[in-house]
Write a structure and sequence with these properties.
The chain is α/β, with parallel strands linked by helices. Helix content is 32%, strand content 18%. A hairpin with a 2-residue loop joins strand 8 and strand 9. The chain binds S-adenosylmethionine (SAM).
């Protein structure tokens, strides 16, 4: 799968290299990634990519010409989609990430300032995605979030694929609680069933603990469990 990100801060994405999972996926060719500097598509010597909004008001708006030129400069694979990070977009969920992971190439546009000229959204964007009902200063973090959650669904990216298939939201609810050594710490013990070595008992405990956890922490998910 290939990701292309259009941004005024391409160096932001160097930070993804801290993840061993991301590095390995790039090295193995499971993921291809390129950040494109929006300023390279400006047509003045100051590399201007923003301007004041028509009608007045606060802040600046990313201009349509460099955005359109940047997106058009990226070689397209069949089925590629252009996504724009926006708090006004469709909320990113595990289910949607699963669908996105089937797409061979995602071109992700990170906004800044007040956002982008609406004509860019109308003419060049297939879908807008939001990572939550709050506003960030830029689309770089949302782009990284989308790449991370989509990328890890590609078989081979996460070493132990079973861990991906048993995560929260895969079956609709939250994952069961987990524990590691020691079996007791300051009077807090690991549930008996997990120490029993009895696989059926462990499975049974995990199922009911996951349901209980979902009921308490995310009752809104119960309909989909
Ligand atoms: N003025 C815009 C509005 O009210 O809808 C918000 C612009 S925001 C300050 C700047 C950029 O950050 C956006 O263009 C978008 O790319 C990104 N952004 C901010 N919050 C986001 C969110 N929750 N999800 C996805 N992208 C977000």
């Amino acid at each position: 799968m290939r990701f292309d990100v259009v941004t005024i801060f391409p160096e932001f994405f160097d930070s993804m290299r801290v993840s061993q999972i991301w590095n390995r996926a790039l090295d193995k060719g499971l993921i291809e990634f390129q950040a494109h500097d929006l300023r390279n598509f400006a047509d003045d010597r100051h590399r201007t990519v923003d301007d004041a909004p028509y009608g007045g008001g606060p802040g600046m708006v990313l201009k349509v010409e460099p955005l359109a030129k940047a997106v058009e400069s990226i070689p397209r694979q069949a089925g590629a989609k252009v996504l724009y990070a926006s708090p006004q977009g469709r909320q990113l969920t595990h289910a949607w990430a699963n669908e996105l992971a089937e797409i061979p190439q995602l071109i992700i546009v990170a906004g800044r300032y007040e956002g982008v000229d609406e004509r860019f959204v109308d003419g060049w964007v297939d879908e807008m995605f939001s990572i939550g009902d709050y506003v960030l200063s830029g689309g770089e973090l949302p782009a990284a979030v989308l790449m991370e959650t989509t990328g890890r669904l590609i078989p081979g990216v996460v070493g132990d694929y079973e861990s991906v298939t048993t995560d929260s939201f895969v079956d609709g609810g939250l994952k069961y609680p987990q524990y590691t050594r020691p079996s007791e710490f300051r009077g807090r013990s690991v549930p008996e069933a997990l120490l029993s070595g009895d696989h059926a008992k462990i499975e049974q405990w995990r199922k009911s603990a996951a349901l209980e956890k979902t009921k308490v922490r995310r009752p809104d998910l119960l309909g989909s469990v």
